[in-house]
Amino acid sequence: MLEISGLSKRYPNGLLALSGIGLNVGVGEIVGIVGGSGCGKSTLLRLISGLEMPTTGTIVLNGEPIATPREEIGFVFQEPRLMPWLTIRRNVVFGIRHLPEAEQKSRVEEALKRVGLTKFADNWPRELSGGMAQRAALARALVGRPSVLLLDEPFSALDALTRYDLQDHLLDLWSYDRPTMILVTHDIEEALILSDRVIVMEPQPGRILTEVTPGLSRPRLRGDPEFDAWKRRLLGDLTHSFHVRRSGDEDFPAAAI
Amino acid sequence: MSLAAHAGRKDEPVALSERLTGSETATASTQGVKPAAGRWGWLLGLIVPVGLALGWEFAVAFGFGNGRLLPPPSRVLGTLWQLAKSGDLTVHVLATVWRIALGFLFGVIAGTALGALTGYSTLARRLLDPMLQALRSIPSIAWVPVFILWFGIFETSKVILIAVGVFFPIYLALSGAILSVDRKLVEVGRIFRLSGPELVWRVLLPATLPSYILALRAGLGLGWMFVVAAEFMGASEGLGFLLVDGQMTGQAQMILASILAFAVLGKLTDWLLHIATEPLLRWQDGFRPAG
Q: pTM, whole model, 2 decimals?
């Protein structure tokens, strides 16, 4: 349903961020994208969301090219990006402000309940912890029931326990409407826990190096020998991409893998 | 299969609010703590001016000064009392407040409209901002002869002069604040398909509200300064007129009574504006000093 072909992005400063990206993502599929810093993962997500336009290539969702942000695409950023002047409830309403009030109310109550923030509906964003704020951002992205949910390193700023909790919770949320999810992450474990398919990208310019479909049954357990084997394989791919960068530009900062 | 199990969790899904970890606890309890001074804290602001006034009162009473050029507070307050008793004070205060109100209104409208336009549109900024910045550096008093020539000596020129004073801080603050709005929040607006007026209303305006409100207060303060220049333009009533009258008749206590009235009214209107706008900024996560 999401078809990307011949995609490239060159910024006005001449930097070629992406080149020759081709990717198809099926309905309800969870695709993880991993790669070092600067390999164009976030740029790819921004192009899919319609926030930016590609230099060449097309992105087609359900037969229609994406040119601007669309209702059926939800986006969760690295930071919660809640509107600080709106309560948590009003932040979630922000995603469905065009719906009739009665439907807004029922959807927002449901979304807040799903993310466990009912008791904090009338709090200001400043009054929530990082994990709770990110859950509010998830509720805001999902309340409109998008068919595609894009997640740009959504848990990277959180502590390990909160991150594990939210990874589990993301799958809980996914189970309701089963949107297609594309998750950009630095964290190989996160990609393996969540994704049906993992795309590994390499930098300069951002390209798809390889893709793997972890043959892991669910539930996936961290520390399981098979899980660790997949983790080592992905780590090997990422290390290769890191060396590609280092040999390409000695001055480039080391990737955070 | 439960998606919790799907992810490798052994327990059944539990409402997240029931399994918040320590790091997930809301920080609401740390907010909104009133300083120890509490509701009477504002009285602290009276200590210095009242102390200075009493000091001067006693200095004149005990012969350390004659109080001719700087009358003691009792004489200034007596003059104000006489003006109030005769009804003159009300007439002068109402005339000044009315001019301020109209000038403030027009200044706010123009400052907001042009500030929003130049903040939002690059073309408008390139077209208008250089000229407005040049006009901003013109001293208020320089406008007086021009406005008298253009709009006559009566109310119109006075109100326009005050509006000019109010306009610039609001224009400057709003235009700058729009350009400083967090790009990331604007992106959220774009993801939810906001553009044009809806983006301004739902994202840009609330984001600039703290700067805008501060600019309103600065604009109001300048309005009070400009009203004096305005009432020097041949006014027959108003606190500025009282000031000039005191100077012409050599009544220092009249001049100081006018200045005192300006100070009290300026502070009162600023306080009213602060009280009226405070609820709009409850969401702010700014520094709140303790004690």
A: 0.77
